[in-house]
Amino acid sequence: MIDFSKKPLFLAPMAGFSDLPLRNLVKQFGADITISEMISSNALVYESSKTLKMLEKAELENPYIVQIAGSNESVIQKAVEILNRFDFIDGIDFNCGCPVNKVIKQCAGSALLQDLDKLQRILELIKKTSNKKLTSVKVRLGFDKKDPIAIAKACENTGIDFISMHGRTRKQMYSGNADYEAIALAKENIKIPLVANGDISAENAKEVFKITNCDALMIGRASIGKPWIFHEIKTGKKIDKVMKNKIIFTHFEEMLKHYKEQGISIFRKHLHEYSKGYEDASNFRDCVNRINDVEVMRKYIQEFFNRE
Fold first, then answer.
1. What is the pLDDT of residues 63-116, one digit of tens each?
2. Is 221 annotated as a binding residue?
3. Residue ranges of the DUS-like FMN-binding domain (predicted)?
4. Is 299 assigned to a binding site?
5. Domain interval for residue 280
6. Of the N and C termini of the chain, which has fewer Cβ atoms inside 10 Å?
7. Are residues 250 and 172 in the same domain?
């Protein structure tokens, strides 16, 4: 379902950001593969309406991959059985990269990099239980020290389809630079596709492909406020103001379509990023934080970004 010979570009799963509207948007502007926000296997088994809504697929997503997190094997199995009910899901990605404390305390996310035997058991369980075409995992270089080869080989041994690797340890969180040479070591030692992640921009994408010899790139934080980054990487050209505005306005309409009026408040964090570098941006942010009317917000966005 994924042609890695074409060096595809992935949108990274990002809690609070890679929701359906953003995924549908980046699919229109150059992203090849999208993955849902990280979904807790515990929340999925509880089947809360909010969690089930997070499973919804955007119309342009093909393939559509859902990412789950957790550490309790029986709960993870139940979560996968729930995902099996949804025919529109093409793959399950398992999160072993999340560095935040509340996930680590549950022995989930990147905490599993400290116990590769357990990580392997979970991946084997997901693959055995799932009725989906794709099974994958997202990892970091290690927990407090780098061990990319052992991690990549442990994942490959479970029979999964591909690995995404962020070029930092859990200890680094998002500080320091991503280590592309470490990702290259992982790539050298496995036969399945490897997706490189961490600090990737339109400026360094070609260099990251060259250093890592990876099969794809995954872009996360660099796409927030710049969802056109996929288009820029593919074409090597900066987008013009007209295209930029089209993307911002499209994003707002996608938010309203998905979240209804609640989309106004949820979109504020995106407007804060979109307005960076614009004159009078701080006043703009202050104003959008107070607007709760759809028409007023729509007009204000258009007036601000359409200025010469």
1. 999 999 999 999 999 999 999 999 999 999 999 999 999 999 999 999 999 999
2. yes
3. 11-301
4. no
5. 241-305
6. C
7. no
